[in-house]
TrEMBL record:
Keywords: Cell membrane, G-protein coupled receptor, Membrane, Olfaction, Receptor, Sensory transduction, Transducer, Transmembrane, Transmembrane helix. Putative odorant or sperm cell receptor. The chain crosses the membrane at residues 25-48, 60-82, 102-120, 140-159, 197-216, 237-261, 273-292. Pfam families: 7tm_4 (PF13853). GO terms for cellular component: plasma membrane. This is Olfactory receptor. InterPro entries: GPCR_Rhodpsn, GPCR_Rhodpsn_7TM, Olfact_rcpt. It is a multi-pass membrane protein. Belongs to the G-protein coupled receptor 1 family. It comes from the Eukaryota. It is found in: Cell membrane.
Length: 317
C-alpha cells in the first residue's frame, strides 16, 4: 500500500495482539470469551440494580454507571480487533482512529473520576451514616455521575485534537491493538516532547485528584473502623470498601504504568500486555469483584434466577 509522505488522513495499520502470537486463534477465542462474559456480567449488574428495590441506593447507582462505562469501554476496542482478525485486515481509517482515541480517553477518564468519587460515598456511609441520606441524596449522585462524565469528556476533547494534528511518518504502522496515545506519538515526524510533557502533567493531575479523594476518604474510614467496638461492624466496613480498593488498584496501577513511568521502562510488548489488562480484563473483573464479595448483589441474582426458573416451570404446565 502506498502512503503519501506525511499524508494527514491516510489509513493507519494496527499490528495488533495476534501478529506475534504463536497461537493467534486461541488468543482470539479467549478474548472473544472475555468480551462476551464482560458484556453479559455488566449488563446483568445494571439490570439487577434497576429491578431489585434493595439495590436502589447511591452505592449501587454509582456501580451501575461503572458497569455502563465498562460496557462502552470494552466495546470501543475489542470488536474492531476481533473483526480484523476474522477478515484478515489491520487497517483503520484516520477518522476511525480519531473516534476510537476520543472514546477511549473519555471513557477511561470518566472511570478514573467515578472511582475516585465512589470513595466519597463509602466515606459518608461509614463515617457519617446518620447524614448519609442527605449527603448522598439523588441530586448529589447525579452530580457525581455528571462530574465523572464531564471530566472524561474534557480529557477526550483536549487530547484528541492535539494528538491527531501531528504529521505522521510514512509507515503508518501502529505497534498496538488500538489507537492509544503513546503508540501514535511514536509515528510522528515532528518533536512531540513538549506535548508529551504537557500530557504527562495532565495525566498526573487526572490521577492525583481522584487519588487524593480516595486517600483522604480511606484514611478517615480506617480511623473510624479502628475506633469501632463491634467486630461485626468492622467486618462489614472492611468488606464494603475492599472491593472498591481492589478495582481502584487494578485500574490506577495499569494507568500509572502507561502514562506516568518513564520511557525507559516501556517496551511494545509490555505496553500491549498492560493495555490489554486494563482495557479487556478490567471490565470483566469489575462486576465479578463487586458481585462475588457482595451479599446484596448475590441475593438479588439468586432472587432473579428463582423468578426465571419458577416462570419457566409455570409455562411448561
Amino acid at each position: 500500500m502506498e502512503w503519501g509522505n506525511h499524508s494527514m488522513y491516510a489509513d493507519f495499520v494496527l499490528l495488533g495482539l495476534f501478529s506475534d502470537n504463536r497461537f493467534p486463534w486461541l488468543l482470539f477465542a479467549l478474548i472473544l470469551l472475555v468480551f462476551i462474559i464482560s458484556i453479559a456480567s455488566n449488563t446483568i449488574m445494571i439490570i439487577l440494580i434497576h429491578m431489585d428495590s434493595r439495590l436502589h441506593t447511591p452505592m449501587y447507582y454509582l456501580l451501575s454507571q461503572l458497569s455502563l462505562m465498562d460496557i462502552l469501554y470494552i466495546s470501543t476496542i475489542v470488536p474492531k480487533m476481533l473483526v480484523d482478525q476474522i477478515l484478515g485486515q489491520r487497517a483503520i481509517s484516520f477518522a476511525g482512529c480519531t473516534a476510537q482515541h476520543f472514546l477511549y480517553l473519555t471513557l477511561a477518564g470518566a472511570e478514573f473520576f467515578l472511582l475516585g468519587l465512589m470513595s466519597y460515598d463509602r466515606y459518608v456511609a461509614i463515617c457519617n451514616p446518620l447524614r448519609y441520606p442527605v449527603l448522598m441524596s439523588r441530586k448529589v449522585c447525579m452530580l457525581i455521575v455528571l462530574a465523572a462524565w464531564l471530566g472524561g469528556s474534557i480529557d477526550g476533547f483536549l487530547l484528541t485534537p492535539v494528538t491527531m494534528q501531528f504529521p505522521f511518518c510514512a509507515s503508518r504502522e501502529i505497534n498496538h491493538f488500538f489507537c492509544e496515545v503513546p503508540a501514535l506519538l511514536k509515528l510522528s515526524c515532528t518533536d512531540t516532547s513538549t506535548y508529551e510533557t504537557a500530557m504527562y502533567v495532565c495525566c498526573i493531575l487526572m490521577l492525583l485528584i481522584p487519588f487524593s479523594v480516595i486517600s483522604a476518604s480511606y484514611t478517615r474510614i480506617l480511623i473510624t473502623v479502628y475506633r469501632m467496638s463491634e467486630a461485626e461492624g468492622r467486618r462489614k466496613a472492611v468488606a464494603t470498601c475492599s472491593s472498591h480498593m481492589v478495582v481502584v488498584s487494578l485500574f490506577y496501577g495499569a494507568a500509572m504504568y502507561t502514562y506516568v513511568l518513564p520511557h525507559s521502562y516501556h517496551t511494545p510488548d509490555k505496553d500491549k500486555a498492560v493495555s490489554a489488562f486494563y482495557t479487556i480484563l478490567t471490565p470483566l473483573l469489575n462486576p465479578l469483584i463487586y458481585s462475588l464479595r457482595n451479599k446484596d448483589v448475590t441475593g438479588a441474582l439468586q432472587k432473579a434466577l428463582g423468578r426465571c426458573l419458577s416462570s419457566g416451570r409455570v409455562s411448561t404446565f
